[in-house]
Amino acid sequence: MKIIHTLLYIPLFLLSVNTSAASLDSEDIIKGKQFWQKERVGKQPYLQRSCTSCHGIDQTKQGKHIKTNKIIEPMALSITPTRFSNDKKVAKWFLRNCKWTVGRTCTVNEQKQILAYLKSL
């Protein structure tokens, strides 16, 4: 578990919260967006899953969790500037959401790409 926990922090060091949108890698942004929007097969009753299932299509607006109906604040850093400021929370949500949405832990590279995409908005 400690190894996984350590790996989850790597993208945060590679892509600091203070990273400006202009300095983000355009290929990472594109791949992050593709990952974010990709539909995956899930289990009943949520057979189709993607990050947009709960976070919505527009990351500058609130989302709503499809199971709990809990409101999710916008993921776009331009709207919620403190969104990625707590490393532990980011690691926790990557671990939890990747397992539910993708069926596995997201790789370090996938996390980096997702963060690049969300920070570009």
What does this structure look like?
- The chain is 47% helix and 7% strand.
- It has five helices and four strands.
- It has 121 residues and is mainly alpha-helical.
- The N and C termini lie far apart (32 Å).
- The chain has helices spanning 2-14, 26-37, 52-55, 87-101, 108-120; strands spanning 40-41, 48-49, 63-64, 71-72.
- Helix 1 (2-14) crosses helix 4, helix 1 (2-14) runs parallel beside helix 5 (108-120) and helix 2 (26-37) packs across helix 5.
- It has a single domain, classed as Cytochrome c-like domain (Cytochrome Bc1 Complex, Chain D, domain 2, Orthogonal Bundle).
- The strands form two sheets. It has a two-stranded antiparallel sheet. Strands 3-4 form a two-stranded antiparallel sheet.
The number of helices is 5
Q: Which structural class best describes the helix and strand composition?
A: mainly alpha
The CATH superfamily is Cytochrome c-like domain
Total E-strand runs = 4
How much beta, percentage-wise? 5-15%
What descriptors fit this protein?
121 residues, mainly alpha, Cytochrome Bc1 Complex, Chain D, domain 2, two-stranded antiparallel ribbon, two-stranded antiparallel sheet, 5 helices, 47% helix, disordered N terminus
Layout of helices and strands, plus pairs?
Blueprint: H1 2-14, H2 26-37, E1 40-41, E2 48-49, H3 52-55, E3 63-64, E4 71-72, H4 87-101, H5 108-120
Antiparallel strand pairs: 1-2, 3-4
Helix pairs in contact: 1-4, 1-5, 2-5
